[in-house]
Amino acid sequence: MAKIFTVLSGKGGVGKSTLCVNIALSLCQKGKKVLLIDGDISLRSLDMLLGLDGMVLYDWSDVLENRCDTEKARLFYDDNLQLLPAPLEHPESLSEESFKVLLSQYSDSYDYIFIDSPAGVGKLPMIYAKCAGQCIVVATPDNVSARSAGVMGNELVKSGIEDQNIKLVINRFDPLAVVFGKYLNVDEIIDITYLSLLGVIPEEKRMMYASVNDKELPSRCKAKICFSNIAERISGKDIPLNL
User: Fold this and answer.
1) Which residues contact 154 (CB under 8 A, 6 or more apart)?
2) pLDDT digits 0-9 by tens, 150-177
3) Domain ranges of the chain
4) Model confidence over 165-208: pLDDT tens digits?
């Protein structure tokens, strides 16, 4: 049965979708089977990040409302990584209960399922979070993003998610910007969010170029190593945080 994570952020533009894809790719390279579910209704992007946008015929709302079976809705990046695209309109039948049923139809076929949630603390992110039970909150190292990540963490706890099942990833971290007082340091972000740190992804142009050109990160890219370490921690290994 798959371990299910919802990836969330308090505000948009923090690189949540790119992080989803790269953690999934890292897990697949370690032999795990992963399903990505794009939860950003009407604003889906995972199909483009994986270079599968020209192949979308169905989305997960078609499974939810019995318009197609579970197999037809999936897009194959490769044998280990598949995608369920988001619908372009909000399904009338979507609820916490119906989404749990959807997840149950795929759970036995995968090691991990990641749900890419829309930004913010609205009803939809909370549905995904409660269905998954394990959450990754993404923030960038600025005051606005850190504060919104803290708000997201509080909302998740109020919705019934236990503290130990909510982890923080700091994205686009630039140590030099910290030295010059442009960014918060890691300890300051943790103090603002009150969240346990899962990993830190450095600011790197190669990561941006790879995401907009649906290419995998080069093997020597620092960000790729950090994604690999996060994947190891998610798998239960004790990998130290070397910042």
Assistant:
1) none
2) 999 999 999 999 999 999 999 999 998 9
3) 3-234
4) 999 999 999 998 998 888 999 999 999 999 999 999 998 765 55
Q: Nearest CA to 54 among 23, 85, 21?
A: 85
Predicted model pTM: 0.93
Buried b (16+ CB within 10 A) or exposed e, 138-176: bbbbbeebbbbbbbbbbbbeeeebeeebbbbbbbbbeee
For the record, the structure tokens of 167 come out as 């982890």
Which CATH number applies to 3-234: 3.40.50.300, 3.40.50.740, 3.40.50.2300, 3.30.420.40?
3.40.50.300
pLDDT at 207: 54
The strands making up 75-76's β-sheet, listed across from edge to edge, are 75-76, 81-84, 34-38, 112-116, 3-8, 134-139, 166-173, 196-202
